[in-house]
Specification:
By secondary structure, the protein is mainly alpha-helical. The protein has helices spanning about 1-15, 15-35, 40-60, 65-75, 80-110, 115-155, 160-195, 205-225. It is built from eight helices and no strands. The protein starts with a helix and ends with a helix. This is Peroxisomal membrane protein like.
Length: about 230
């Protein structure tokens, strides 16, 4: 019990930890609003207010987040030319997303012209989608390389079984994390597409709600302390 509490404290001390918790509030309230809108309008209205407040709170909390993309490119551009290009494209898209998200937040709270909200939302979502596509491609390439490495280690495990088993365990742990990243990025891509090109599927409350929770909980898993 104490260990779980300690991990929760560490998790919530991270900016990403708080973001995933509030994102859970945001999309649970969206689903609640959809579910009770016709039968309990008062509860639905409260859920909608919770959703909006959570969404705006997340945007405020992400102030300056666009600099993390620049830092990622500067510190870890990739081990090969292919990964360097993918890293630049992915992080550039994410930088556009977080940068214009600031203006979207300011327009929605009325600090700047509210009419700019739609344009800022489109640019932010476009950059987000662009970045996620290349993050997903990178993860799939690394997942494929991990499978090859695991098969090679499995075939040669007789020579040094203890070291091979440890290496295989690390590969499997990395695979789980990358699959969580893919799940989160695909879910967020669906949410971004709802802003770029509104359509009945992506913009449905259930699609958005489930996508938001998949993204939040996959991020929760990835950021949860391992020790």
């Amino acid at each position: 019990m104490n260990d779980t509490v300690d991990k929760l404290v560490i998790f919530l001390a991270k900016r990403d930890g708080i973001d995933k918790l509030v994102k859970t509030f945001q999309y649970v309230s969206k689903l609640v609003n959809w579910h009770v809108e016709a039968t309990y309008p008062d509860i639905a209205q409260r859920a909608k207010q919770w959703e909006v407040a959570s969404g705006l709170g997340r945007k405020a909390f992400r102030t300056g987040r666009f600099l993390t993309g620049f830092n990622a490119i500067r510190r870890n551009p990739g081990s090969t030319q292919t990964f360097k290009v993918l890293a630049v494209l992915a992080n550039a898209g994410e930088m556009v997303y977080f940068f214009f998200d600031h203006f979207l937040w300011l327009s929605r709270i009325g600090t700047i012209d509210p009419k700019l909200a739609r344009k800022m939302s489109f640019i932010s979502a476009f950059g987000e989608s662009f970045g996620y596509i290349f993050f997903i491609i990178s993860d799939f390439i690394l997942l494929k390389e991990g499978l090859k490495a695991e098969n090679k280690l499995t075939a040669s495990s007789k020579d040094d079984s203890k070291k091979a088993e440890e290496d295989i365990r690390k590969i499997k742990a990395d695979r789980v994390m990358r699959l969580m990243a893919v799940a989160a990025n695909v879910a967020d891509l669906l949410i971004a597409l709802a802003d770029i090109e509104p359509n009945p599927f992506c913009n449905h409350a259930v699609t958005l709600g489930i996508s938001g929770l998949v993204s939040a909980w996959a991020g929760w898993y990835r950021n949860w302390p391992s020790q």
